[in-house]
Amino acid sequence: MTETDHGVGEAVAARIERRWAILSIVIVGLLVGMATFIGIHQATMPQGRVETSDPKTLHLSGEFVESNLGSTLEADGSVTVRAIGQQYSFTPQCIVVPAETPITLRATSADVVHGLLIEGTNINTMLVPGYVADLPIRFKAPGEHVMPCQEFCGIGHQGMWGKVKVVDKAAFTKLAAGRRRLTCVD
Ligand SMILES: [Cu+2]
User: What is the pTM of this model?
Assistant: First the structure.
């Protein structure tokens, strides 16, 4: 190989490297742009504060004991929904909520990482053991939404589905009368 050949080879390598460097910057820029667009357009954003839970004692005491899961009508008229994901189901399996009402969904996992997605809404979160996902929701109209686990969680993952039943506000108030928590399972 001559001196000139060597020089040409170097120039070619430098050009290719520069091209790839530019391409990787463009890809990063594109991903940041997508995240920004989704954040603004679909109001998808990370939770404001970190809350923890202990998966080992989840079923024994505290907010996520079984008798506390489901929808609760709060004194201010809003609704709080508490749910847990475990291999391979959600508890409650069917969530009932009113339309046109501010709802806070609070959920966590009892074992491995699960996902919670409510079809037709911007609710799409991971349920990480040890942490509480806290999300605001509001449904415009009554209807039914499927709620699959969207995070591969093991051999039975594909069978992990829940349901959200949105009912008329007045119907929900009637259902909730005299009851501390509601689900559409019982
Ligand atoms: Cu799962």
Answer: 0.76
